[in-house]
Design brief:
The complex is a heterodimer of chains A (88) and B (239). Chain A has 88 residues and is mainly α. Chain A has a single domain, classed as ACP-like (Non-ribosomal Peptide Synthetase Peptidyl Carrier Protein, Chain A, Orthogonal Bundle), CATH 1.10.1200.10. Chain A is built from four helices and no strands. The longest helix of chain A is centred in the first third of the chain and has 15 residues. Chain B is an alpha/beta fold. Chain B is built from nine helices and seven strands; from the N terminus they run αβαααβαααβαββαββ. In chain B, strands 1, 2, 3, 4, 5, 6 and 7 form a seven-stranded mixed sheet that branches. In chain B, strand 6 and strand 7 form a beta hairpin. The two termini of chain B are 23 Å apart. The interface between A and B is small, with 12 and 10 residues.
Chain lengths: 88, 239
């Protein structure tokens, strides 16, 4: 799987797991902030996304660490982390 | 109960709104109230007035309830009372099944599984700071909601918005033999007044289903039994 494929897959995972109505993968800027400004997701979404990534890629995240925050900064950051740490 | 205290549980029906998959307009509800006829069409509640980022949190019953909330003006000083026997029971059941099967639940769905979630979501979206109460009282949920609303009026609220909503139990609960009523939501805006009166009348009363109350309000029946305990709602007699 190329990194571009993984980015596309993660965007779809975000839309599906967070019930983002009216948003398509093309609407999500790969480098934009996922939380706060950017896409406008909140802390509940962060938990939901963590569970979805865990299920899909066999990842685990430390609950409230600076490192985790960085992995969740953008789709690009998530894809980089998933690409190197996935176990499935 | 003395005449004085009975009089304090009176109110007017200022406005109403209602939503079910087959009854989406006031005219359709009026027709149902007078004929009992349901329609074959099935629509989805759009809740176009709510930002999509918040609307996505609500499932079907919640969206129906939100549809009725957005259909009426919301005076800032009118508290909201939500009376629902089961709330979004399809969500709760799915969560419990997910927990049993995987040992984990969806955080997003879990956060919306509390009984006051819909009222909370609505006040967040509309930035209202009005108090929200959510109650469930089994087969006496209709009565419970009315008593709560009437008490808040008696306590000085200038008006109360009473939301009643429920959806059929999932098949899993079929063995308990509950009567399945199609999902519905309706909102009554009650204001101080004497058009309608809650009173206690010892006898063989029966618990009113929420739609029994709506039907009573939309027709001209003089009295409706609200509960086995003897509570009734009556229209003021024309003098």
């Amino acid at each position: 799987m190329t990194q571009a494929d993984l980015v596309a897959e993660i965007k779809t995972l975000i839309i599906d797991s967070l019930n983002l109505e009216e948003i398509t993968p093309a609407d999500i800027d790969t480098d934009a902030h996922l939380f706060g400004d950017g896409l406008g997701l909140d802390s509940i979404d962060a938990l939901e996304l963590g569970v979805a990534l865990q299920k899909r890629y066999g990842l685990s995240f430390a609950a409230d660490s600076e490192e985790t925050r960085q992995h969740f900064a953008s789709v690009a950051a998530l894809a980089a982390y998933v690409g190197t740490h996935r176990t499935q | 109960m003395s005449a004085t205290s009975a009089a304090s549980l009176s109110f007017n029906l200022h406005a109403w709104s209602a939503w079910a998959s087959d009854l989406t307009t006031p005219e359709a509800w009026q027709h149902w109230a007078h004929t009992g006829e349901r329609q074959a069409q099935q629509q989805e509640p759009a809740v176009a007035a709510m930002p999509a980022m918040l609307r996505r949190r609500a499932q079907k019953l919640g969206r129906m309830a939100l549809e009725t909330l957005y259909a009426q003006p919301a005076p800032a000083d009118f508290p909201l009372v939500v009376a629902s026997r089961y709330g979004e029971i399809l969500r709760s059941t799915a969560l419990l099944q997910e927990l049993a099967e995987t040992g984990a639940v969806s955080p997003q769905s879990f956060s919306m599984s509390v009984h006051n979630a819909i009222g909370g979501l609505y006040t967040i979206a509309t930035q209202q700071q009005t108090p929200v109460s959510a109650l469930a009282a089994g087969t006496q949920t209709t009565l419970g909601g009315l008593i709560e609303a009437a008490m808040q009026l008696a306590d000085g609220a200038p008006g109360v918005r009473l939301l009643l909503c429920d959806e059929p139990l999932p098949d899993l609960y079929e063995r308990y033999g509950e009567t399945a009523t199609p999902a519905f939501a309706y909102l009554l805006t009650l204001t101080p007044g004497a058009q309608l009166r809650l009173h206690h009348q010892p006898g063989n009363g029966q618990d009113a289903a929420p739609l029994d109350l709506l039907r009573f309000l939309l027709t001209d029946a003089p009295t409706l039994s609200l509960g086995q305990t003897g509570w009734c709602i009556s229209r003021a007699l024309a003098l």
